[in-house]
């Protein structure tokens, strides 16, 4: 069994957005307060995180994380990787490098943005990573958990989703090719991005996300990577079909 917890369900700006006074950004409902998108997985005591954006430190503190066994990266945008420096407490506590799993071009970005961690003689307090390249065509194992990569498109940018047994996780997708859609089929739970009501050039909007959930016939879909433009949680949740729910920070579920 996998226990999944939403660490963040917001867009690159988070919710509330700096300087915004819309009803969502002013909402007192904690389900409308969204850190940058990330998911925590607990599989038989193996702890994994998908994406480590600028809120990674706050997210780890909020769930009381004491150990982390690896980080999977969907792509190289800052709201998904900017928090990687904050693996340092895990390095110190666990006495080893942090495994990072991503496509080769994403790992290349990591070595550039965090170049100080890869110096020949790095500063003693620098984060320490072990980098593992993902072949998007091949499943791989992390501590006995099989991970199936799923190629999706963030506009024209290649991004990875992941399937873990009966759980499929996809964020920052705008289109999914038919061959990759087949990899979702048979999932019991799908996590899928839904930015807003209106179509967007690089993200799924609500109607498109609902159509993917319908076509894939997934019993339960949680929506993530949600902007303030989608509306208040209470208003949107009441309009969704029974097999679809809005994710929110802190929500946990078992698969």
Question: What is the total domain count?
Answer: 1
Order of helices and strands: EEEHEHHEHEEEEEHEHEHEE
Please write the CATH class name.
Answer: Alpha Beta
Task: Categorize the overall geometry.
Answer: globular
Superfamily (CATH H level) name: Ribonuclease Z/Hydroxyacylglutathione hydrolase-like
Rg from Cα: 17 Å
Strand content: 25-35%
CATH architecture: 4-Layer Sandwich
Number of helices: 7
* CATH topology term: Metallo-beta-lactamase, Chain A
Helix/strand structural class: alpha/beta
Strand order of the largest sheet: 6-5-4-3-2-1-14
End-to-end gap: 6 Å
What is the helix content?
A: 10-25%
Number of strands: 14
Q: Uncertain runs with pLDDT below 50, 5 residues or more?
A: none
Biggest sheet architecture? 7 strands, mixed
User: Mean of the pLDDT scores?
Assistant: 97
Description:
This protein has 255 residues and is an alpha/beta fold. Helices cover 20% and strands 28% of the residues. It is built from seven helices and 14 strands. It has helices at residues 56-63, 78-81, 88-94, 104-113, 178-184, 206-216, 233-237; strands at 2-8, 38-43, 46-50, 70-72, 98-102, 129-133, 140-142, 145-154, 157-164, 167-170, 189-193, 220-224, 244-246, 252-254. The strands form two sheets. Strands 6-5-4-3-2-1-14 form a seven-stranded mixed sheet. Strands 7-8-9-10-11-12-13 form a seven-stranded mixed sheet. Helix 5 (178-184) links the parallel strand 10 (167-170) and strand 11 (189-193). The model has no long low-confidence stretch (mean pLDDT 97).
């Amino acid at each position: 069994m996998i226990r999944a917890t939403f660490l963040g369900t917001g867009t690159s700006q988070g919710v509330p957005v700096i300087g915004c006074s819309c009803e969502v950004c002013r909402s007192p409902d904690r389900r409308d307060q969204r850190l940058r998108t990330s998911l925590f997985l607990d599989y038989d005591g193996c702890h994994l995180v998908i994406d480590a954006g600028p809120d990674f430190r706050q997210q780890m503190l909020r769930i009381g994380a004491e150990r982390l066994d690896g980080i999977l990266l969907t792509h190289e945008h800052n709201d998904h990787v900017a928090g990687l420096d904050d693996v340092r407490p895990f390095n110190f506590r666990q006495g080893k490098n942090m495994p990072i799993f991503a496509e080769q071009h994403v790992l290349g970005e990591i070595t550039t943005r965090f170049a100080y961690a890869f110096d020949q003689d790095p500063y003693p307090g620098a984060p320490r990573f072990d980098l593992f390249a993902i072949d998007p065509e091949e499943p791989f194992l992390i501590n006995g958990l099989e991970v199936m990569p799923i190629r999706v498109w963030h506009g024209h940018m290649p991004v990875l989703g992941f399937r873990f047994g009966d759980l499929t996780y996809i964020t920052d997708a705008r289109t999914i090719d038919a061959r990759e859609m087949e990899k979702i089929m048979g999932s019991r739970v799908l996590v899928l991005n839904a930015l807003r009501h209106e179509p967007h050039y690089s993200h799924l909007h609500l109607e498109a996300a609902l159509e993917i959930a319908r076509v894939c016939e997934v019993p339960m879909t949680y929506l993530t990577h949600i902007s303030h433009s989608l509306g208040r949680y209470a208003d949107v949740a009441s309009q969704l079909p029974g097999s679809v729910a809005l994710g929110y920070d802190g929500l946990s579920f078992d698969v």
